[in-house]
Amino acid sequence: MTHKDFSYLIGVDGGGTGCRVAVATLDGRILAEAKGARANVSTDCAEAITNIMRATHEAVHKAGLSIADIDRAVAHLGLAGYTGPEISRLIKAALPFAKSVVSEDTHTTIVGAIEQEDGYVIALGTGTIIARQKAGQQTFIGGWCYQVSDQASGAWLGHGALEQTLLVVDGIVKASPLSHRILEKFDGAAGIVQFSLKAQPRDFATIAPDVIETASAGDAVGTWLMKRGADYVDSALRALAHQPGDILCLSGGVGPHYAPYLSSDHTQNLTPPRGRAVDGAIALAVQAATQP
């Protein structure tokens, strides 16, 4: 197919908590968007594809376009849990689009946040994205998965809040407004344990707003967790050779809340995101539609 044979563009931001799909014209003008359920392709690939396609159909309908033309659409999907060519082939085979490009959600997040400019992106939501873009090359560290990584993320904060609350119950850590809130929310220590036995990263992440809110009010436990997360982010930026004055973009539901806790060396050129990961996906879909 040539560019003129394509019908429209699809951009997908797929995360562990949910996905967002945008439909755009071939020049990248977004016509409509829709939100869907979780879309981590390592956790459950079949479920992720189902959720993405449901949101895609909704977005196409909202845009006033025809689902019948979806087999002539070009899509770029930035997906949490993407692990390489093997899973990419599996995902592409399950999609109805004329052309599909699949990447890590880190790629779409960077392009959405700083476009083609040199800079650093810390995107913290359920999981963790830490990246540098320099001379068109992207470098990522961390964010391997919640079980062994994803420090400073929403899931990490939520898990830490539960851990610290149980230490309060054991008399090791002093009680605080956060620990009181957690104990009330889960109806005591037993409730925390039962929740944790079944919880996925997205479930732990639902507790992160409690940590952020209480820390901003001076809560000792919440502040300690935010400082620990910030220490990790500072270390990651040093590992990526961030220099004072380099662009740093904090994004995601959790990311911007770390700004007060980070080293001043890293926040001298704090820049708001130019766009979202789904905007980055559309920009990359524009490229895909013009390439052979």
**Cα-based radius of gyration, to the nearest Å:** 20 Å
Residues in helix, %: 40-55%
Order of helices and strands: EEEHEHEHEEEHHHHHHEH
Mean pLDDT over all positions: 95
Provide the descriptors you would attach to this structure in a database record.
5-stranded mixed beta sheet; single chain; ATPase BadF/BadG/BcrA/BcrD type domain-containing protein; Euk-type_GlcNAc_Kinase; 292 residues; 4-stranded mixed beta sheet; 2 domains; ATPase_NBD; 41% helix; alpha/beta; Nucleotidyltransferase, domain 5; ATPase_BadF; 10 helices
Could you characterize the architecture of this molecule?
The chain has ten helices and nine strands. It has 292 residues and is of the alpha/beta class. The protein folds into two domains: 126 residues, Nucleotidyltransferase, domain 5 (2-Layer Sandwich); 156 residues, Nucleotidyltransferase, domain 5 (2-Layer Sandwich). The strands form two sheets. The protein has a five-stranded mixed sheet. Strands 8-7-6-9 form a four-stranded mixed sheet, sandwiched between helices. Helix 3 crosses helix 10, helix 4 packs across helix 5 and helix 4 crosses helix 8. The longest helix has 20 residues. The radius of gyration is 20 Å and the shape is globular. The protein starts with 8 loop residues before the first strand and ends with a helix.
